[in-house]
Design brief:
homotetramer, 78% helix, globular, mainly alpha
């Protein structure tokens, strides 16, 4: 019942976040290439964040497939996730405008870390309300990918103050890790003929 | 019939309000911590408003569950509520940029008060069109929580001119009051096996 | 089939238009009442446009109820309507910031006129594709309200250059005319037991 | 199953892109015609982009009709398309503010080209996952229109540096080509009684 609205609202917020980020690419005043070139780091940070929001949308899609009932706990765990994702446009813009310098890179990593924690918390809320024998509980298992992402983000934050480009490489690496779609749920669904 | 579109439109407006508020967090020009720190009050007011819009979305979700038919009265009572909620980004930004000073705090309280009145009016419209014996009429009963919220908001407005921080505490207190999900409808639904 | 996506897309665009208009209320820099007062005309024009977009959403809702099949003609007639409605935030902002002066008032009237023409064109496209005996054709009849609105908007444009406040009164008057929901379709639906 | 959310998310993003572009029409400070006239090229570029996004939405609508199952490949091919479309507000604003000068025109053509390539890639992903005998594979056939659009965009990019107005004519010409709705799918659907 409530699942449809939860998905619709989340889709709405994610669609707005992904599109509003492009407003960070402010239209420059000149018409020369020199007017465009300062926007390159903003553009690159936009691409990275677009991919991350795409990953979250894609995985949210899979996650919600396993949800049978929506209570207050799941609703607020979902809003908590959307809160951290809503900070992407700010963190992306600040990092891009400052050419991936230390503090903005560390802040971007912190937003990624908080969103990843919010994601684990949402997963946890769903498992608690659906039982340990539920589809999701079996599908994620030890959830190596989710937990190792946390470690990479957590590592990228202090590293940003010394070698911010290593942090960027970590952000790209984790994104690539997730671009491989989460076949765990798909596989179990296929096996069980859900 | 029309209920699906009413929910979809309301979800859309609420999703945009909650996401557009973050544009109030304007990307600062420096890359140091000193560039970020003036944004702290804006960020705190954003968190408060995010929670309030989340509460309204959550309760709207419950409220619409009780609606069986949508006429012009409910449509306009709903748009009236969305109007006051659409002023949140403005009131939030003004309060945050002025570090919770008296007049912006009083304005924020006024927007909260008007939204709460619009909410009661929407509830009333639903009860009028569905009858006193309807699910919603029984669920809300005397509606102590809704009416006491009004009192707190109304008190916070004059207090803001003397001790704006007391008003802020009242805003946070009422938000916490509502974070506890409205189990009244859920309970009645469960009892009646709807 | 395609009707659901047409409604969803239109709801999305209308929800964004109605919410984006509030960005015209730019957060002022001072914290005094004197910082707020220049925003009053912007706020009043926002209220007027909010009501107009609400009326269009409400009537769109009724109009789509009569649609059984969606072809290319209806799709583009609908996008044409959304185009003119998308100019509301611009026309509203310009009129509000210039305190309802002649040219901005005339432009606002022109956008209202073009949107009203686009509405009649959408109605016409639906009747053409559904036949003269269709529900909509019977419901609108001579469509006195739609056509008289056109006259009022058309009159308000030249009047704006001499007495812009008369144009404003006309805008408010037509809005009030439409706030009374379009019972013609509702009545016919009830009679026919659709 | 997942198709509904894919459509809803795409509709959301397209609705936001089409509406956010109008923010490029910044409210001018004067109230005279002279304040409005510099906005004319921005307005014209907005009209062109509105039509293009409308075409993409319309065709997306037809394309999704042929989709029976949604896997990771289609999800990401769709997000890839949305990425290039999300650059429309930026490319539109830059082209309009610089009065259709060479480099902005070439950039606009490049965004059109990349979006068209992303569209072909999405079509390809759907055919791969549904088989060569699928509805879509038969409907598009050699896809003369899709492929010739690519050629026109590709030609418009270098031409922009010498005669940008020829590029604009090409953009308008291709838009008109697509305004004629894609009857190929509609015809096949009608024949097969899908």
């Amino acid at each position: 019942m409530g699942k449809v609205r939860l998905e619709a609202f989340s889709d709405g917020v994610l669609a707005i976040i992904i599109t509003i980020m492009v407003l960070g690419l402010r239209v420059p005043h000149g018409e020369k290439l020199s007017a465009l070139s300062p926007l390159l780091p903003v553009f690159l940070s936009y691409v990275l964040s677009f991919v991350y929001i795409g990953i979250y949308w894609n995985n949210h899609h899979h996650l919600m497939y396993t949800v049978k009932k929506v209570g207050g706990g799941i609703l607020w765990a979902n809003l908590h996730l959307l809160f951290w994702l809503s900070l992407f446009p700010f963190a992306t813009g600040w990092m891009g405008e400052n050419h991936f310098s230390p503090l903005p890179t560390a802040l971007y990593g912190s937003v990624l870390l908080m969103a990843a924690l919010a994601w684990l918390f949402l997963q946890h809320s769903i498992i608690v309300s659906h039982g340990e024998g539920s589809l999701l509980a079996q599908a994620i298992g030890g959830d190596l990918k989710g937990k190792s992402s946390l470690l990479f983000y957590a590592a990228a934050i202090p590293i940003a103050f010394f070698h911010p480009w290593i942090s960027q490489i970590l952000f790209v690496f984790v994104a690539l890790l997730w671009l491989i779609p989460d076949r765990r749920i798909e596989r179990l669904v296929a096996e069980r003929r859900f």
